[in-house]
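ARCHIVE CARD
CATEGORY: sequence design from structure
SOURCE FIELD: tokenized fold
FIELD CONTENT:
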């Protein structure tokens, strides 16, 4: 089994280009952003997060199948779920986008799109669908996210994946582990995804934010590890500048 490690590191301002890794016939393009950039130095404040990634084969045809994605989030980040409704994965199994969003409306924490390449009658077809992230049950983990996706051109294909989020030590506070499901009966591969996480809610009379952060060292980073079916592993960190509130900027 071939294993290739590539470092994906980009320390950038908001207008920077996406980070790009090419290895073993595979290209990964990833980028992310958060707002606002000016944050308190010693206590978290609400933020909104946007992230996107695309995978392609540099040799043509579909990319290899992504089996697992691990994301580690900066130690200066905070996740707040106390008082936020949860969505049980079983409650939206086999349910379309609109119905799932109605059923678990109070648990929505993010929305976006997801794309795949699927093999239909001997041809590779690109499909895109709506992606919804719900606050999930915590169970044995710190928290969880329930991801729901449904391709527009393949409405019978509905995917519901529970993503556990655990506390970690060191430079990163949380780890989300995504076990990518089989796509289109194993004949499809994940190609791209884009998501925005933004949720405010009230709990015990106070306004809260699902995601918040502080800026203690001038950057916020996300570390990713992607494992593909052919043994390729892409591992690295994308960082973005933040500005401690009150710091003079010429």
């Amino acid at each position: 089994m071939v294993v290739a490690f590539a470092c994906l590191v980009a320390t950038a301002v908001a207008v920077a280009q996406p980070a790009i890794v090419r290895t073993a016939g595979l290209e990964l393009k990833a980028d992310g952003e958060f707002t606002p950039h000016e944050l308190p130095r010693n206590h978290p404040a609400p933020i909104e997060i946007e992230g996107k990634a695309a995978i392609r084969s540099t040799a043509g045809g579909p990319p290899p199948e992504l089996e697992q994605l691990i994301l580690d989030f900066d130690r200066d980040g905070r996740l707040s779920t106390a008082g936020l409704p949860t969505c049980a994965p079983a409650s939206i199994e086999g349910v379309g986008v609109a119905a799932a969003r109605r059923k678990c409306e109070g648990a929505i924490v993010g929305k976006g799109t997801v794309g795949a390449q699927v093999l239909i009658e001997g041809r590779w077809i690109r499909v895109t669908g709506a992606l919804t992230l719900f606050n999930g049950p915590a169970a044995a983990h710190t928290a969880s996210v329930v991801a729901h996706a449904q391709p527009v051109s393949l409405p019978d294909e509905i995917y519901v994946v529970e993503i556990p989020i655990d506390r970690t030590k060191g430079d990163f506070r949380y780890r989300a582990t995504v076990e990518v499901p089989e796509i289109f009966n194993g004949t499809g591969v994940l190609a791209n995804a884009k998501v925005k996480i933004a949720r405010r809610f009230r709990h015990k009379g106070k306004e809260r934010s699902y995601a918040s952060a502080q800026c203690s060292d001038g950057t916020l980073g996300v570390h990713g590890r992607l494992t593909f079916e052919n043994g390729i592993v892409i591992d690295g960190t994308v960082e973005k500048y933040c500005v401690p509130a009150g710091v003079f900027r010429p």
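CARD ANNOTATION: The first strand starts at residue 5 and ends at 6. The mean pLDDT is 91.
SHELF: design records, drawer C
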